[in-house]
Amino acid sequence: MTEYVTVTSDAPLGRNGAIKLYGPEAFVGMHAAGKLAAETLDMIVPHMVPGVTTAEIDALVYAFIKSHGGVPATLGYRGYTHSCCISINHVVCHGIPSEKTLKSGDIVNVDVTPILDGWHGDSSRMYLIGDVPLKARRLVDVTYECLMLGIEQAKPGNTMGDVAHVIQRYAESHRYGVVRDFCGHGLGRLFHDAPEVVHVGRPGTGPELKPGMIFTIEPMINIGKPDVKLLEDGWTAVTRDRSLSAQFEHSIGITEDGCEIFTVSPAGLHKPPYA
Ligand code: MF3
Ligand code: CO
Ligand code: CO
């Protein structure tokens, strides 16, 4: 069944399938890395406007993370050569920064993962470009609510299935589709570690949540069906039915009585509109 291992030394522990339970020093490190992720997502807010290229946003993200003593985890990760992922409209995740420009009406996810002092802070938010139709804004709002409902369930004694279930129930009550092909993940000194954090499931199923666990929750919600397809570039995931998709992501740590969110916006820019 599910294995847990208490992380006692500072020596980085590899990926062995067990769920790591971290101590207070890890929480301090994750708070710092998570804060840098959140500040990066705050910093780009005024730049997310019609006409800007996603490569320009990527360059801003790179410069900001570097100047704050961090390194983008995605740079060189499995052959990925950019500092963030930028996923527009029907792109579900892992959109590659390019010379493509943002246009009015777009909904855009930016996902950043700075490594600071060896700890990974992984977070993403949605941005509304110019005038966005109500239908798209509703998707973005519901997706944010899905993430926060999931986080409310992230406490000792609950299971991953409890987190997944509230996300699925809320999304499907709006007749949206919850993406199955990508999930959240444990993280810490590693970018992607056990456990898998699924976003659909039944209450009481899956690994039990214990104090010291550190992981992301990052639901991807589609206006249409849950199905995704991978583009030729090997990274870009899009909705099969070309419907709009949204995502928010936080990195969290389970405490004795709930959880701490490491990636809260210091500027209070939690969800759009940010103005
Ligand atoms: N930040 C993404 C996540 O939330 C992973 C991106 S990996 C990349 O897990 F290589 F596509 F950048
Ligand atoms: Co993640
Ligand atoms: Co991410």
By helix and strand content, what is the structural category? Answer: alpha+beta
CATH class: Alpha Beta
N- and C-termini, Cα separation: 48 Å
Principal-axis shape equals globular
CATH hierarchy: architecture: Alpha-Beta Complex
Q: Mind summarizing the main beta sheet?
A: 3 strands, antiparallel
Uncertain segments:
none
Multimeric organization: single chain
What is the succession of H and E elements? EEHHEEEEEEEHHEEEEEEEEEE
Helix content: 10-25%
Which small-molecule ligands are present, each listed once?
2-amino-4-trifluoromethylsulfanyl-butyric acid, cobalt (II) ion
Strand order of the largest sheet: 3-7-8
The tally of beta strands, per DSSP, is 19
Concise synopsis of the structure shown:
The chain has 275 residues and is of the alpha+beta class. The protein is 24% helix and 24% strand.
Task: Give the SSE layout.
Blueprint lengths: L3 E3 L12 E3 L2 H20 L10 H14 L3 E2 L11 E5 L2 E3 L13 E6 L1 E3 L2 E2 L2 E6 L5 H19 L7 H14 L3 E2 L5 E3 L6 E5 L16 E4 L2 E3 L5 E3 L6 E3 L5 E3 L2 E5 L4 E3 L14
Parallel strand pairs: 1-2
Antiparallel strand pairs: 3-7, 4-6, 5-16, 6-9, 7-8, 10-14, 11-12, 13-18, 14-17, 15-16, 18-19
The protein binds 2-amino-4-trifluoromethylsulfanyl-butyric acid and cobalt (II) ion (2 copies).
